[in-house]
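Design request, tokens follow.
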């Protein structure tokens, strides 16, 4: 029952945003005074479980929980435990999540009990003042303690850092040495034009081709075929022995191999992160106790998955490519 899009790509990776809420307000992601969805509009945990189960039955092998910050969703571990049954059956190969790390001290052990083996932690700086500036509300010490707890529990961690011009670009070498020194991969990401924020993204945007050139003055980077199922291209860093990934939606469109779709906490399915076209799965989900209507709606949506996104950041195009914030769709 594999899902095949119009370009012959097998859709095997589902990202599920369990909430649009977050306990941070990262400057490149959202405005400080965000208006979040009313809780009544969110799918229940039981509905999210039912939806993800249908996707697993239709061939999804990797499932990532995202947000917002997924671990601030009330009773989130109930959903994780429910989904983990697909790991036990072998239908699902991997269950993972992307987090800002603020709640890891509380949930790391339980995540491991549910079969989660690795997670992504978003961390753009190791400088407390910069961290407060970029997150507005975050506490670096709490995140670092969460990473300690996650590693102690046995979770493998990849650090994700958004590269921002004149902010953390000079710090990436230090972040790289720190991550690799603790046995963690690092992936750097170009900022994406999603949603209105309080700043001009042209002031933030740093092409990773430029960052890589700067890093190669200090490090020996060798391209390797390593893949995690996402869009990152990896290199091995000779001096540290670790891996460094580059996610380049702006300078190198990675859409040709896209195997992903994204489900929001309201039941909206986005076939592409950088396009507005979407499918409402909440209506067929609630229209019948059976899953035939839901399955048909998913097939119709996959049948119109676009070839790629249309992200642009320049002085002439200073509006977001899509109106929704990343926290709505999920990272």
């Amino acid at each position: 029952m594999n899902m095949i899009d119009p370009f012959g790509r097998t859709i095997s990776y589902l990202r599920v945003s369990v909430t649009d809420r977050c306990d941070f307000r990262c400057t490149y992601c959202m405005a400080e005074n965000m208006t979040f969805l009313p809780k009544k509009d969110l799918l229940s945990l039981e509905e999210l479980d039912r939806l993800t189960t249908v996707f697993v039955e239709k061939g999804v092998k990797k499932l990532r929980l995202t947000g917002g910050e997924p671990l601030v969703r009330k009773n989130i571990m109930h959903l994780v435990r429910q989904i983990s049954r697909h790991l036990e059956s072998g239908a699902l190969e991997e269950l993972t999540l992307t987090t800002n790390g603020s709640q890891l001290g509380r949930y790391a052990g339980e995540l491991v009990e549910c079969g989660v083996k690795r997670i992504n932690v978003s961390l753009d700086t190791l400088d407390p003042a910069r961290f407060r500036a970029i997150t507005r509300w975050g506490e670096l010490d709490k995140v670092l303690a969460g990473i300690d707890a996650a590693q102690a529990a046995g979770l493998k961690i990849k650090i994700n850092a958004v590269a921002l011009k004149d902010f953390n670009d000079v710090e990436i070498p230090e972040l790289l040495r720190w991550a690799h020194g603790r046995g963690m991969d690092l992936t750097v990401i170009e900022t994406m034009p999603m949603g209105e924020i309080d700043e001009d993204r042209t002031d933030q945007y740093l092409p990773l081709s430029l960052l890589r050139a700067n890093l190669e003055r200090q490090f020996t980077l060798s391209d390797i075929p390593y893949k995690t199922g996402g869009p990152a291209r990896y290199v091995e860093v000779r001096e540290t022995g670790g891996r460094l990934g580059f996610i380049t939606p702006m300078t190198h469109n990675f859409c040709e191999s896209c195997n992903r779709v994204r489900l929001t906490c309201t039941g909206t399915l986005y076939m592409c992160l950088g396009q507005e076209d979407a499918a409402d799965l909440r209506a067929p989900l609630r229209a019948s106790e059976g899953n035939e209507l839901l399955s048909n709606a998913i097939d119709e949506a996959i049948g119109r998955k676009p070839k790629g996104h249309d992200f642009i950041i320049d002085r002439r195009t200073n509006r977001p490519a899509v109106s929704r914030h990343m926290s709505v769709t999920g990272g």
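Comment from the thread starter after seeing the answer: thanks! The longest strand covers residues 156-163.
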